[in-house]
Specification:
The complex is a heterodimer of chains A (about 180) and B (about 450).
Chain A: E1 2-7, H1 14-24, E2 33-38, E3 50-53, E4 82-83, H2 97-110, H3 114-125, H4 127-134, E5 138-141, H5 147-156, E6 161-164, H6 166-180
Parallel strand pairs in A: 1-2, 1-5, 2-3, 3-4, 5-6
Chain B: E1 9-14, H1 25-37, E2 41-47, H2 49-56, E3 71-75, H3 91-95, H4 97-108, H5 120-134, E4 139-144, H6 149-160, E5 164-168, H7 188-199, E6 202-205, H8 208-217, E7 225-227, E8 252-256, H9 265-275, E9 285-289, H10 300-308, E10 314-318, H11 325-330, E11 334-338, H12 349-355, E12 360-363, H13 370-374, E13 380-382, H14 388-404, H15 407-417, H16 422-436
The chains are: A alpha/beta (about 180), B alpha/beta (about 450).
Chain lengths: ~180, ~450
């Protein structure tokens, strides 16, 4: 069972992450491989098999080269965190200021979730994220800013289940585990 | 009207039916079973199982308790706002969620003025019509909320003259927490409710304050309004505790029920922390059983609050299947009745609590309707306000009582509880309806509840 978590939460901590995995009820019997795709760098190593950071460098700490992956998870747990770099927003400089303002107003009305859009764009651009999602069983979008990414990835990858929230994630993981049993 | 001697066919319309795990499901289960027990032919019209397994959480053990004579008709219930499968989301919802939500709310109320549930009206009416065509319905009992359940009753009444009962678990136009009118006079809801009340054979409410409010609002229907209190279910309720506890070990306090955001859990936790300084409360524990919030996933702020007080012995024990309720009560020495404030609120759990013959600490506004139920209960420890010191004092008193209550006092508690058995609340009304339909119900008009050990 492979589960990919999408998170835009700032500085996920081991405690908050433990709560999250408890809510997902990731039992050992599922032999879950856990991949975290996050916008912000976790505050400390987390018990995941792979952590992919898709936020801009500014969202990462100066110690970006450190390994925020808890080695207790399994043989692959010591794999380094992949810093996916920036999802650079399009430069505004190329457009006259009045057009930029107008575009922003329209975008704010229709699709005001700027972080959600940037998170989605970054996920789509990164081959590592796409590869991890492609053979996942379940992709859980943990917060509202990750829904767009999940929705777009779902259009590209037909196999995994894509759900919003840990409650649904838990249910789908249980269902898939039951199918395999 | 059924043929003379023939069992009437009652259609019970209720959204939350087993395996739904919501609080109101026990009333629904008892009502359907109550009609079946008195010889009615019962069809339950409810939402699909998936509605509960996917969205609200399910307690599948409850399905085994449905009387096998009851026919359950399940119809799909779409709940777009709760849809978590992202493949089901459209572009518009994903990229313009605010606009989508606004539009969704407008669409919801096109057919019936109830956000989230309104679109179900079409399915309900269609299903009710089919059921009636296959086996004519003699009586519809519709249980709210959601209030859209009334639409099936209204449909068969308008099209076929079938009488109906409106069973309110809460209220539609009254906010049971703060007592204000939710829908203005002349609004669509107010007009619809007035019409439905005018046409109803009976209207049921869970407590006297709610009935009195509606009687004032609809004086012409006052005589058809009845209190059918929730009561406890003798088969699930705790067996009354006959003796005091061994004083050596730490006391165990417990709360069983859903913790909504109206429940003053933070106030309780502060009082609990203070109370534990008392010798009688040394090392005492308080367990919260049930759901934290209305959904399957525990509400993060409530989880955090409980974790914050973990060192004081406060813990969250998780959801509790109804089948295990009695067993968990057995482990407790005193009960915590932590309720949101409201003149019109009677929690269903209060009835189970009184059946236990355990000390009960009321952590709620003294004017809460639950106080009316508990007044006179010998081991009741209410608070006058929600200050930590006040709550701590009540907890300490309950702790003393848990250690020292005599057998006589426990027996008084047990006797007090008998009046609140659910069948004593429900059976008379079902019998009365049978007689009004020209049908002689099976069995005595009321049954004595089983009060368990010592009774």
């Amino acid at each position: 069972m492979k589960v990919v978590l999408l998170s835009s939460a700032s500085a996920e901590t081991p405690a908050s992450f433990a709560r999250l995995t408890e809510q997902l009820d990731l039992r050992d019997t599922y032999a879950a491989r856990l991949v975290l795709v996050s916008w912000h760098r976790p505050s400390a190593p987390l018990p995941v098999d792979r952590a992919l950071l898709v936020g801009p460098p500014a969202a990462l700490s100066a110690r970006a080269g450190a390994l925020p992956v808890d080695g207790s998870q399994g043989p692959e747990a010591s794999a380094p965190v992949s810093i996916m770099g920036s999802a650079e927003p399009a430069s505004d400089d190329a457009l006259p200021t009045k057009h930029v303002g107008r575009l922003r107003r329209v975008a704010t009305r229709i699709a005001p979730d700027v972080l959600g859009s940037r998170f989605a764009l970054s996920c789509l651009r990164k081959p590592d994220v796409r590869r991890e999602v492609a053979d996942a069983d379940v992709v859980v979008a943990l917060d509202a800013h990750t829904y767009r990414a999940a929705w777009l990835l779902a259009r590209l990858h037909p196999a995994p289940a894509f759900v919003a929230g840990t409650g649904a994630g838990r249910r789908v993981i249980e269902e898939r585990a039951a199918l395999r049993a | 009207m059924p043929q003379e001697g023939a069992a009437p066919h009652v259609l019970y319309v209720v959204w939350g039916f087993p395996p739904c795990r919501g609080g109101g499901v026990y009333r629904a289960l008892a009502t359907a079973n109550g009609f079946a027990a008195q010889g009615y032919r019962v069809t339950v019209l409810t939402a699909s199982r998936e509605t509960f397994t996917r969205y609200t959480g399910a307690d599948t053990s409850l399905e085994e308790l449905v009387d096998p004579r009851i026919e359950v008709v399940r119809i799909p219930f779409a709940w777009p706002s709760q849809e978590t499968d992202l493949r089901e989301w459209g572009f518009f919802r994903t990229f313009a969620p605010r606009v989508w939500r606004r539009l969704r709310k407008r669409l919801d109320v096109v057919r019936f003025p109830e956000v989230g549930y309104g679109p179900w009206r079409t399915h309900l009416e269609s299903a009710a019509q089919k059921i009636h065509e296959a086996d004519p319905v003699d009586l519809v009992v519709a249980s709210a909320n959601p209030n859209v359940d009334f639409s099936a009753a209204d449909h068969l009444h308008r099209t076929a003259g079938v009488p109906y009962v409106m069973d309110y678990r809460d209220a539609w136009t009254l906010d049971v927490f703060d007592g204000h009118q939710v829908h203005a006079d002349g609004s669509r809801v107010a007009r619809l409710e007035a019409r439905l009340v005018a046409g109803a054979r009976e209207i049921w409410f869970v407590n006297e304050p709610i009935r009195a409010w509606h009687q004032r609002r609809y004086p012409e229907a006052a005589g058809r309004m009845h209190v059918v209190a929730n009561g406890y279910d003798p088969e699930f309720a705790p067996l009354p505790r006959a003796t005091g506890r061994v004083p050596e070990r730490p006391l165990r306090f417990g709360y069983i029920g859903t913790v909504s955001n109206k429940v003053p859990l933070a106030e309780f936790a502060a009082g609990w922390k203070l109370a534990r300084r008392s010798p009688v409360m040394a090392e005492a524990t308080a367990e919260i059983w049930g759901y934290l919030g209305f959904y399957s996933t525990p509400s993060p702020p409530l989880v955090q609050l409980i974790e914050q007080y973990a060192e004081t012995g406060l813990s969250y024990a998780g959801p509790l299947a109804k089948q295990r309720v009695r067993e968990v009560y057995e482990t407790m020495d005193a009960l915590l009745l932590i309720l949101g404030s409201g003149l019109y609120v009677t929690s269903g759990k209060v009835f189970e609590y009184v059946a236990s013959a355990l000390p009960i600490v009321s952590v709620h506004d003294p004017r809460n309707a639950a106080s009316d139920i508990l007044r006179g209960y010998p081991l009741w420890f209410p608070v006058s306000d929600l200050a930590p010191e006040t709550i701590a004092h009540a907890l300490e008193q309950a702790g003393e009582a848990a250690r020292n209550a005599t057998e006589e006092l426990r027996a008084e508690c047990r006797d007090f509880a008998v009046r609140y058995s659910r069948d004593l609340q429900l059976t008379p009304r079902i019998s009365a309806l049978a007689h009004s339909l020209g049908f002689t119900p099976k069995g005595p008009p009321t049954t004595r509840p089983t009060t368990g050990a010592g009774s």
